[in-house]
Amino acid sequence: MTFAEAAAAIVAAGRRMDAQGWVPATAGNFSARLADGTIAVTRSGCHKGFLGTDDVIRVDAAGAPLDPGARPSYETLLHCGIYRRFPGAGAVLHGHSVANTVLSRRAGSAIRLAGYELLKAFPGGPTHDTAADLPVVDNDQDIARMQAGLDALWDATPDAPPGYLIRCHGVYVWGADMDAALMRLEALEFMLLCELEDGRRTP
Ligand SMILES: CSCCC(=O)C(=O)COP(=O)(O)O
Ligand SMILES: [Zn+2]
Fold this sequence. Notes:
Blueprint: H1 3-19, E1 29-33, E2 39-42, E3 56-59, H2 76-85, E4 91-95, H3 98-106, E5 110-114, E6 131-137, H4 143-156, E7 163-166, E8 170-175, H5 178-201
Parallel strand pairs: 6-7
Antiparallel strand pairs: 1-2, 1-4, 2-3, 4-8, 5-6, 7-8
Helix pairs in contact: 2-4, 3-5
């Protein structure tokens, strides 16, 4: 994928996520892996529903901007951590929805999603009759330290699903390309909203 293609896909993903209310204020960040191993990632601090292609920045695999004056997402190292660990990851999405934020506040170290038809959007075969334990990690303003915790988690759980929640913060999801990442994110947010609604009805 070229930088221009990645930037266009990132801008479109931002509009789509904003339409769902998943990137309030300046929340969220998105990226795509480029053919040469560098990464296209959103600029820090802008509204992700109104991105232009000049709000997409190129960084190296360690997160350093190729243009030293550019300010990539504060959470760029989490994107780099996903690309480093998962060679099949081509795009990463991060959003702050009500469902993922509320559920992560109540959760322990994982949220079990079981029996949903939409689990077919995740690895594990073409069946709903399965479960995914979505990791929940504590929020930390030290992003490198948070990534070190995620690396330890993935070492211990190599079959973890392609996503995780950060407590009281948001979700990260990835896929082979932007369309696959968006499909997973939509499936995951749907299931999380079901869990939230279910919890509201349960006394
Ligand atoms: C107001 S949102 C706080 C930062 C954050 O969690 C986020 O997703 C956006 O940060 P970025 O640096 O990528 O704009
Ligand atoms: Zn965030």
